[in-house]
Amino acid sequence: MISSSALKLSCPIPNGDFETSPLGGFPSEASAVRDGPTAIPSWKLNGTVELVESGEKQGGMILIVPQGRHAVRLGNDAEISQDLTVEKGAVYSVTFSAARTCAQLEALNVSAGTASMTIDLQTLYNVQGWDPYAVAYEAESDDITLAFRNPGMEDDPTCGPIIDDISIKKLFSPDRPKDNAVLNGDFEEGPWVPKNVSLGVLLPTNLDEELSPLPGWNVESNRAVRYIDSYHYSVPQGKRAIELLSGKEGIISQMVETSPNKMYTLTFALGHAGDKCKEPLAVMAFAGDQAQNIHYTPDSNSTFHTTSLNFTSKAERTRVAFYSIYYNTRSDDMSSLCGPVIDDVRVWFSSSPRNGIGGLGMRLVIAILVLVLVLV
What we know:
Helix content is 4%, strand content 38%. By secondary structure, it is mostly beta strands.
């Protein structure tokens, strides 16, 4: 087992990349001699579980291995699991890569203890044939079982998802800034993003902000959003941001604390990820009962600009949300999903009236009136 101290930071789990050689070698090795299924070091197996190798074929189909030379394919109702020692009550994110094979409707169930989540693999977000995902769970005890199961039942019992490159990270809830009602508005706290992966990490639907792989935020819709890093994408500030995918089917939101009947301003950075995403790029931004369609305007000096939306709160909690107006794809392959980037989201109290005549504007109006009276 991994010790609880080891899980305080990001780390791959033992043989999470499936590159550790089984006893007797990998199935494709000429010297490998074994009876029955191959045992996979550090993992418990149930059902038809296969180690597959990059370039391996099944009929006329080449099996996709996301990282390295080897990965695992789960057949009908098959499962792999591993016992981990963690910190009871802490929230952990699990990052992994998944690819489809020969089934039409493939899904993957990921569980930690009694909590589980099923991810639909029907949508392929890029032309490489696989996607990284992240989910989050609260540790119910110091010892948990992390399991991946194929819930499908196909005529070909070997059909099923391929998984690879599994890591785990303890999540921390960032302190709420004094001048910002948004928690984790800079998106710096989130799941583990492998530096050798240039696809970002997909965050599937998650309606519980307490158990989100992106602390403070929910993904409300039936499609994922992409968590991106500055190593592979253009990020407005810091090292992390969110790329909105699939139009209205990819909504990210947060309930922020507000005072009823007070004026607030929502500001955020809107930009281009630098991933050859076809323009136009635009978001629909929501703050309470206000909504605004905002387009990204290219600038030769920057890949993003800051925009704002004024609103009056109606309650002690106000919903802030974003989705992409368009269904964008990359110009180099015309298939990989992409979209506008948001970052540095802030909600702050504004004493200015909605028409903008306040502060400096109000002082200017008063000065003009005084001047008129003096001249009269």
